[in-house]
Amino acid sequence: MVYSIIQKSQLEGANRLDAEYYQPEYLKLKLLLEKVKSKKLSDIAEVSGGKRLPVGEIFSDQGVPYLRIVDIYNTFVDLDGVKYISEKLYNLLKRYQIKNADVLMTIVGNTVGLVGYNQTSLGKFNFTENCARIRSETTLPQYILAVLMSNIGQLQVVREKVGAAQPKLSLDRLRNFQIPTLNGKIQTYVRSIVLKALDFFEKSNNLYLEVEDLLSEELGLKDFKVEDDLSYVVNLSDVKSAHRADAEYFKPKYNTLISKVKVQMSKLGDLVSIKKGIEPGSEEYQDEGKLFIRVSSLSKNGIEDKDQKYLNDELYEKLKKDYEPKVGEILLTKDATPGIAYVLKGPVEGIISGGILRLKLKNDIGPEYLALCINSIIGQWQAERDAGGSVITHWKPEQIKNLFIPILPKPTQQKITDLVQKSHQASKKSKELLEEAKRKVEEMIEKGSGKT
Length: 452
What we know:
The chain is 40% helix and 16% strand. It is α+β, with helices and mostly antiparallel strands. The protein folds into two domains: 191 residues, Adenine-n6-DNA-methyltransferase TaqI, Chain A, domain 2; 224 residues, DNA methylase specificity domains (Adenine-n6-DNA-methyltransferase TaqI, Chain A, domain 2, Alpha-Beta Complex). The protein has a four-stranded antiparallel beta sheet with strand order 2-9-6-7. Strands 4-3-8-5 form a four-stranded mixed beta sheet.
């Protein structure tokens, strides 16, 4: 049995009576932070919330970036897939703009506690009400980022958030987070590691943009743009053949895109075999154990530690033969956010969910090249056209098998593969450096050697 003995004065000071709040690990952390000396986050930084878009306002494909939770999950702000608002709305939301070196933390939903660093020099941004902005003029923001990412910050997140169905972390509780006042040399060292990680992150993004441009150029889609027609005519025979009657499916832009590609095309079903994942049921989810890889934790950069769920060892052993992905296979999302493809780089002890497919190559084509084609405009537009569902979007395996994949010459495929691998290597190095920054903070706290 795990228990803690708490003084009545401590209960009154925290305004909390639930036993969860006084778990031994939280009390141990409190003692450690007192030992090295700490300050409230509000004493070293300004903490403020974002702003919900006014009623009637919608996102657009251009304008001023509006950062959401999904844009900061990768620690650094990621503009891939970002939504935009108008310049006029941006100016109306002046109080809710973010600047370079601002730190963001998610405060609503199952991903409470994700931390992001706004490193971009692209200009102005607004941010969602589901995030808090942390801005400091006195303490290095990169150091604050590392503390909040570390076990020091994340334990405080788990302790202070409230709500089970829709977890929340109030701004007042975040302002009371304790930040250890490690000496200036350590803070500067941590800052240097974070900035190195940023360099590799940007290198990874630039390489990926380069390879996307190369693919577009080779396919004849460089600077490809098409306007949506306000009206168009569809033959009844086409409606019957597609088994679809919705206007969205027959937008001319989809056929225009395919017709622009001047190279040989093959159907995905001729290139790969496809296996679907499994849904064991949410009652099987655990906070630790073997990975249960869901759509929400998969990106084109890999399996992300975001709202991650786990299965017990017994269930894993039962399912792994049929549902554990292998190195070199492509994981492809078919539900919720269909069309995300990632080539598994290393062995993983885990099971894929029913919203993910395993693609195993059965033809002489590179997996990285194939994944890039699926993640590119040619794959994404086909997924957008095919996927249906009013609440949760679904992309049927039969449709996925008919996905058109352009087949470029082998030397070009290899050039693309080399660039993608370099991008992933840079991304991996960035993550390793961030882990190093977190470990440094935790190590100094454990040693109690961070006194000023």
